[in-house]
Write a structure and sequence with these properties.
single chain, mainly alpha, 2 helices
């Protein structure tokens, strides 16, 4: 049994998934807090954060397709 931790493919999947998660969440949270600070309106900041979140999801989908290509055997 391997006592060194998860295998290399599992670690690689975890790192790539974490990168995609950061690409989705960090810009949307930053947009929310910046727009909330600038406008002072929570609902306007919420809408801006949601829009940025879905844009980030679109970019992460394209990135995920490149990162998780199945290797041909």
């Amino acid at each position: 049994m391997d006592k060194q931790g998860p295998s290399r493919p599992t670690r690689e999947i975890f790192l790539k998934g974490s990168l995609i998660g950061l690409i989705i969440t960090v810009p949307s949270l930053a947009a929310f807090f910046i727009s909330w600070f600038v406008t002072g309106e929570k609902y306007v900041a919420l809408v801006i954060g949601v829009v940025v979140h879905f844009i980030g999801m679109g970019f992460s989908l394209k990135l995920a397709k490149k990162l998780f290509k199945a290797k041909q055997v």
